[in-house]
Amino acid sequence: MGNTQDAINRVCDYRGLPKIKKGSRCLVDGKDGVIFGGNHSANFNVKFADTGRVFNCHPEYKMTIFSPKGDILYQSKEA
């Protein structure tokens, strides 16, 4: 897997999440980022705005993902 839409689709399919597009804005533990890809752990690769670095983020850990219009597409129970 990698930083592709296909990798993101596989994470969504595996975890039963709605379809999420690469570049979707998200919050992880209150920090702004964008969904950048998916990985073999079935987690998202998130690029954070404050550092520009990409981290492996579990979608069920304090994550909210937004549509291009700003609507919530997905929100973990802990978010």
Provide structural commentary.
The protein is mainly β and 79 residues long. It has one helix and six strands, in the order αββββββ. A six-stranded antiparallel beta sheet has the order 4-3-2-1-5-6. 25% of the residues are buried.
Task: Please give the structural blueprint.
Layout: H1 5-15, E1 25-28, E2 31-38, E3 44-48, E4 54-57, E5 63-66, E6 72-75
Antiparallel strand pairs: 1-2, 1-5, 2-3, 3-4, 5-6
Reading off the top of the CATH hierarchy, the class is best stated as Mainly Beta
CATH architecture: Roll
Roughly what percent helix? 10-25%
Uncertain runs: none
Largest sheet: 6 strands, antiparallel
Properties at a glance:
79 residues; mainly beta; SH3 type barrels; six-stranded antiparallel sheet; 1 helix; 14% helix; globular
